[in-house]
Design a protein that fits this description.
The protein is an alpha/beta fold. It is 26% helix and 21% strand. The protein has 2 domains: 140 residues, Urease, subunit C, domain 1 (Roll); 307 residues, TIM Barrel, CATH 3.20.20. The protein is built from 12 helices and 20 strands. Bound molecules: (4S)-2,6-dioxohexahydropyrimidine-4-carboxylic acid (DOR).
Amino acid sequence: MSSSSGAVGHIPLAVRSAAPAAGLLSGSGRSHQSLVTFTDVRVVDPAGGRDGAANVIIEGDRVASVGRESRGLRIDASGLVLAPGLVDLHVHLREPGGEDAETVASGTTAAAAGGFTAVCPMANTQPVADHAGVIEQVLRLAREAAMCDVYPVGAITRGLAGAELGELGAMAAVGVRCFSDDGHPVQSAHVMRQALAYARTWDAIICNHAEERTLTGDAQMHEGIQSDLLGLTGWPREAEELMVARDLILARGLGARIHVPHVSTAETVALIRAAKARGTRVTAEATPHHFTLTDQQVASYDPVYKVNPPLRVKTDVEAVRAGLADGTIDAIATDHAPHPPEDKEREWSAAPCGMLGLETALAVTITELVRPGVLTLPDAIAALSTRPARSRDIVGHGGPIAEGTPANLVLFDPEERWTVDPGRSHSRSRNTPFAGRELWGRVHHTLLRGRFTVRDGESVTPGDDDEIGDA
Ligand code: DOR
């Protein structure tokens, strides 16, 4: 067994951040002389086609071997799964401008605690990341303080206003691979088509928050029986489906790449499935809340369940699960959307949309999809790591785990139960919809280029002597 204690754990306490992360284009990574072997671990590596027991040797920032050998410090990892570090295509780190909710440091500390080694923060910061200056600022913050690699998403339009394109070329030149006005749909088909055409120049990806605003207006929740009962304005499912259909048609016509974020309805899954069958260059993601929770939760009027797109109904949840199972939906992404209590804990109609997700995604996936048999564990790792990395052209994450590859890894116990305690989150915010839930699957270690960002379930404080071989 590993050195961690207890069958029922908690998210460890927050610690200061600042760490070994590199980030987009920096490709750094300090040289280490360290050497460690995780012995008798279950290696789940979808990219390498491996699921089986092995000893895994880490030397410096790389995997040195996967096999029977052991060298250096030996850490008994029997009972643990070793997988490529998780990759989140959709997070909100709020910096610059929203530091009361989250920072690059706090958000990436939460990410590492959840087993992530790479995250893609959205552009709805203040100022908006619609030009290279803000992208470079986020990259600098990441170099100084991030606990995982950071691949910023650039805005599609100036100020997220939907009218004029942002400086896509300048952002692409500093490494941006994906553009999104997340939270703000691009309403104009003309602007969307322009964005797809420009992005195609760099083979970059457009990710549009799909919401036909003429149908949603001041909607408060999913439109259906529940919204009628609760007296809240409804957000009809067609608002998502119409815009996804439009975007798929536009992307197909141009041969451009499109990514559909936070898929929430059965018809959206069907549209993406059909588009993939026709060869459209589309990828898609689903959030843990959309494959787990329904609009029934809204009956509490607790704004922690307020999110955009809204929680739907059971048939949608089942369709999203089926989409993940058959690969129509490529990735599980959290849409980690921190909001400070003074904003979120208000009456329903005044509260902002969004939920935390980084620290619970792996465990919710294991509990809700792997244990009930919707996904195998390798399929779950593919959706949480390998496919998101590939879909965003992120190199060095997502596996394979083999000699010479960067040691961006997570080790977790899929059988260990713990209870979600928002008070112990590493996020600056507390708005998790899974508070009090008992979940299976707990992260023991996260490694970024061979250095622990989480060790024995605890975040590694930067400056700690965290060389892997220094036990
Ligand atoms: O619920 C949401 N919150 N959905 C979004 O698209 C944006 C996000 C946020 O930024 O808080």
